[in-house]
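Changelog note: in this version the structure field was regenerated for every chain. One regenerated record is shown below for reference.
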Amino acid sequence: MPIHNDAQHYPYYSKRNVTFAKKGMVATSQPLAAQAGLDMLKKGGNAIDAAIATAACLTVVEPTSNGIGSDCFALVWVNNELYGLNGSGQAPKGLSIEVVNQAGYIDEMPRYGMIPVTVPGSPRAWAELSRRFGKLPFTALLEPAIDYAENGYPVSPTLAKNWQKAFELYQTILTDQVFKTWFLTFAPNGQPPKAGEIWRSPEQAATLRELAKTEAESFYTGPLADKISEHFQKYGGFLRKEDLEAYQPEWVNPISIDYRGYQVWEIPPNGQGLVALETLKILEGYTFNERNYVETYHKQIEAMKLAFVDGMTYITDPSEMKVNPEQLLSEEYISKRRALIGEKALTPKPGQPLGGGTVYIATADADGNMVSFIQSNYNGFGSGVVVPGTGIAMQNRGHNFSLNKDHDNALRPGKRTYHTIIPGFLTKGGHAVGPFGVMGEFMQPQGHVQVIMNSIDFKLNPQAALDAPRWMWKKDKVVFLEQSFPADIAKQLSRLGHQIEITVDEAPFGRGQIIWRDPESGVLCGGTESRTDGCIAAW
């Protein structure tokens, strides 16, 4: 992809310059974590080592979005081939719709507590990535995270804001005894840390040392697994050591579509990357000459609605999907979905195909290796459950399961749920262009579509593609717009039947990173999110 950096392709809404480098680059949402990854490159490591070190460090320096108890996914470009790793875990064997109903939840899985906790996949996924593709010892990759957890670091501004918001919410809703450890761990003095204050987590440092020493096995088969299992048993949870022991990350074949001569790659279900691909496939049937034009936004939103309701209907554990990705991406089906887009906003319904709080990391090294990596608790600190003495905050990914036994994504013991986190990757002509991603629960495929179209259709450089004002389809005809979104176009969208809501809160619109590689010079060009403490560490 040509690297556009002239005034024509660097519009008024860009807040910072694009970053260039040659030997290596790490882009993520927190400066200290980005630097930790870059340090691995300077020590002789590769892009995979950098991604693992950054991911481990982010569990310490951005605990409001991810932790040791997270899930993750990765797309890895090595030796001119793209590999996918699914690092999401299954529901515990003892968790079923019946027991959730007996606990008093009939219509929806709870968001907090022990019930929505599925097996965390990140620690074993880190180790698997390191064994297959890494160059440095696994112990070296966790050293920066251990150091920050033990000796402390100054809390960054966005982190402090999100920490305070979570604390205020949790004070109101997390009143049961099981949540006491969260407050002891993350607000030990009765308050969360403020921006610039030093935060330490010695218990997490000890846990990270244990993970480093055992290549993450302690979390699944050793002393850490015992502590997790005992804590869940004590408070009536369902996660047990046998569930942890049975878990393995899974190597998968990435899925892709051709979009205007580029291949856009996503992780296959149970991730929601299929939603982004279906949307782009619908939109490829149109010609877009101008970005800031009401017809552009209208068609983007309408296509996203149609793809999203398909995704929410059909995406689940791949072993139980009744409709496969190829059916949803077939030309015949895409044509039918595209034909539904008219001049006015519609309320979307799923089609009938024929047959059957998150962190993102982009890394690249001088040898051409590149990684698109995403890791998440699901929302905020996750379930609110922290295992005593470990600093391990457990995700709440099971919240996405349906309690309707007839739904494709119905809860079942040992099943993976619909997963919101998705890494993206772009290639052209069999060569890597680079990794991209946008965090933020159900904003993620919407962010993928917007940054890919900004890059390919509208020729924006990575930073401009990320800085551009975003929209987010919420439900039915409701669309959230950022405060910086053009006011005249917002009014025109309203006249087309979209229920527009302008929000001053940037959080719903995600946080992304991009690294593109110039095919001729090998120069790396990166952009990082201006909506958070984003940083690009370059060499």
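Spot check on this record: The chain has one domain: 16-272+359-446+470-539. The two ends are 21 Å apart (CA to CA).
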